[in-house]
Each structure stands twice: as structure tokens, then as C-alpha cells.
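Researcher: I'm comparing several assemblies side by side, and this is the next one on my list. It has 543 residues spread over two chains. Same procedure as the others: predict the full complex and return the structure.
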Amino acid sequence: MTATITIRNLHKSFPSREIPGGYTSILKGVSLDVQAGEFICILGSSGCGKSTLLNILAALDPHYDGELLIDGKAPGTPGIKVGYLFQEDRLLPWRTAEENIDFALAAAGAPKSVWKERKEKYFSIAGLSEYRKLYPHQLSGGMRQRLSLVRALAIEPDLLLMDEPFSSLDEMTARRLRMDILEIWRATKRTIVFVTHNSYEASFLADRVVIMAGGVVHEAISVNLPRPRDYDGQALFDMNRQVIARFIASSVTASGTSPLVAVAGSSPNRPK
Amino acid sequence: MLQMTDQNRRGMAPPAWRSVFQNIGAIRIVSIVAALVAWELLSRIVPNNLFPGPLESFGALLSNIRDGVIFKHLALTLLRVFSGLALAMMIGVPVGIVMGLSKRAAAFLDAWLMISMAIPSLCYGLICFIIFGLNEFGAILAIALTGAPSITVNVWEGVKNLDAKLMRMADAYQANRMLVLRHVILPQLAPYIMASLRFGLGLIWKIAILVELLGLPNGVGFELYYWYQLADMRQVLAWTLVFTLFMLFIEFGVFKRLETRLFSWRPSASQ
């Protein structure tokens, strides 16, 4: 299954560090629709609220105002499976590659009868079949991130969330992994929400680049380049220029409403 | 000529006497031999045979083994030590986990912890014997109360250092509490629990001997006191040797092996 996402007027604030008893508003009315099987890149600078949005989607943060539905249901509803790729691999260092996948399968409640087949399938897609018995520290950084991709895929998620997953890898490794992600996406057609601050990466990967600044979605730019895309081609280069121009324009608009403006005494978010 | 020698040596194996000091195992053996030699020299310096040397002491130890007296006392002491350690872990580990997870619990229990660590172990022994009488229960309780606080400190430290990022990962994959405990929390606490076991045992051995000396009619501590009253230095050293050797056996025969097995995933532990 692959999921649709509906976000309407999403607000999120945190207790303020500067003003005791006050609240800092991070998300200020985010609205967005994501179609089933769509590859969305959320582009924004640090502090714009993109990671906060991802955490709410992953049900890591149940406190927010507004509406957010995955296939018509609130995040964290049993039955909605979310694969999460973090900036770091976040593998369990005391478990082998295979046992790390077992952990995710057990957590997702996948029946034991399918474990073997799932692992064989996704280890082979990621090209890690020979490394199943190794511990994470015995793998390279790129392989570890690939393994955490196997972990995200093995639970056969409705939705794949990725939080700058390649930003800590060297450029050549990151390039290969971007190609792999696209190949896996083409084969499995999962909905992907990919957060990045790299506009070139966003233009290369996404169906739509969603520009976030100052806690709101400014616009969603459709990338109408045919796939497979050439990472070094002129078309992508031009697209990137266009995305950057509009990103800068929206940042200027947003600068009047800095996300760090604290509102004393405004109400905190209630749990859903 | 002299200047040449170093040049000529380049790339060659060091001489035999030097290679001894490049082998870690050899260094350990040399160190033990040196300790025995120092002991022997000391025994010759101390007048009137007040301090017997290693040969005499090991001789006394061997004759005790041949008599069979050693086994009963050693077994009783070990029983007290390990029951005390088990009880100390049962108190220390949960308290440490609670203190690590809740700031309020830590604020409340911190003072208790400091007080219980400040009380001399001898006082635990005296208090327990007065309340419960000169029996096994009092002895084991006194031993456990002495060991528990340092175990708590270790485990508390371990819980404070739990990796929040891995916990988020487990949450994102919707792992239930049992899975998180087994695969995320306990493996991170294992080194701290291991350290607290070792540290606790080191502490508990000593207090166990003291408690036996204080109020029990058997055990290694009782034997030590008995021979001390007779001013028999040979036997005092022989009984000291018994539990020191056993302690070393537990450290190297049990803990080191357990550690290698538990932490085989770590890059350094396997080397």
C-alpha cells in the first residue's frame, strides 16, 4: 500500500527558551497534499520547521493543532506503517545487519513467516546480501545508510520519511544512493517525503519541491523533467536555478515572520 | 663503530631480551614473578620470622587443602559473597534505572545514596547483627547494603547516557516496550552493569570477610581472626592467599570471558 497525505493548517509550538512560560511557534499553518506514490522533497533552511513536520508525520510528536491525515487517519494509528531514514544511520551497533532488520520487522509486527523473504528481497535490492552477518561498525558509512534503507523498506511501509539522509555522506556515495533511492521508488512506488536543504538534490529526486520558510509552505514547484534524470545535465541545472530563485524569493517574504518570534502566554499544543 | 650499530640494526628484529618486553603476556608473567621476589625479600628483612615468605605461605595453604578444612570455609564465604552480591544487584540496578529515568526520583534519592555510601561498611555489619542477631541473614543483608549504592551509581550513569537518537529510531518504528528494553536499552546498560558487578564484587569480598570476623563461627574471615589471635602469621597469609587467588580466578576466568562474549560486537573488545 502507498499512502496519501493531507495536511491542513498545521500549527506547532514549543515552550520558549527565551521567555519563561512563553511559546515559540515553529509551524504556523502548514497546508499540503501529497498523492499516493508521489516523491516530495521539502526544501528549507535549518529552523524552518521541516524536521518538526517529519516528526509529526512519523507520530514521534503527538502534540499539534490542525489536521494531518495519512490515508485519512491520524499518524500513529495502528496499521499505518512508516519507514524512517535518519540523517545518521541509527543502527543498533550491538546487532548484526540482519538482526537490525529483524528488529524493525518485529517492531512493525510483520509475521515471522515473511521475515526471510523480505530480508532476502531488500538486502539484494540494496546490494548488501553478502554483508548480512556483519556488525554496523564493519560497514562503510554508505553501506550503513544503505542498511538503514533496507530497514525502512523491509517493513513495507505505506510512507517513507527521509530526513537529510545523505548529508553526512561524501558526495560520490551520496550520488549513488540517490540513484538507488530513485530505482527503489520506481520499483515499489511508495510515497516518499524527503527533507533536504540541498536544492540540487531536491530537483533531481522530486516530483514536486515544496519550499518551506518561516513555518509555512510557500509553494510547491512541479519538476516536470522526464525520468531517469541526468544528474549533470543542463535541464536539471536550469531547474535548480529556478528552484533556488524561488526559494530565495520566499525566504525574503518569510524574513518578516521569523520562526523564532516568541509569543508570551499563547496556548500550548494539546495532545491529539 | 658505535654510530654504525644503530644504522645496521634498522629493519632487523630486536635482540631476544628486548622482545620479552614487547610481549604483553610475558610482561604480566615477569610482573608476577617480581611480586613474589619482593615478598620473599621482605620476609627476609622482617626479623624473627614474623613475616613468612611465599614458599612457607603456599606450603600452609597446601596443607590446609590436604586437610580439607579450606573447602567448608571457602564455600560458606562464597555463598555469603554471592548471595550478598545478588541482593545488592536486586536493590542497586532498579534504583539506578529509576534514578536515570526520572529527574524527580533522582533528586529525592540522591541524598539517600550519598548517605548510604558515607556509612562505613563496618557499621552496616554492627547494625544488622544487633537487629537480626549473629546469623546468615544479618550477614548477607549487611554485605548487600554495603554493595548496593555503588551499583546504583554505575547503573544510574548508564541510564543517563542512553542514546536518545536510538530511542527515537525505536519510536519511529513503533517498537513496543519489551523490544526497546531488550534490543535498545539493555545492550547499552550491559557495560555499566558489568562494571558494577566487578566493582560490587571487589567491595563485597572485603566486607564479607569483615562481617565473618565480626560475628560468625565460620568462613574465611572467621579463620583469619582465629589465626590472628594465635599470632600464626603463616596461616593468616595462607587464608589471605586463598581468597585472593579465588578473586583473581573470578576476574580472569569468569568476568573477562563474559565480557569478551557480551561485547563481541565492539571493535575493541575482540582485540
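Model: For your comparison table: The longest helix of chain A spans residues 234-254.
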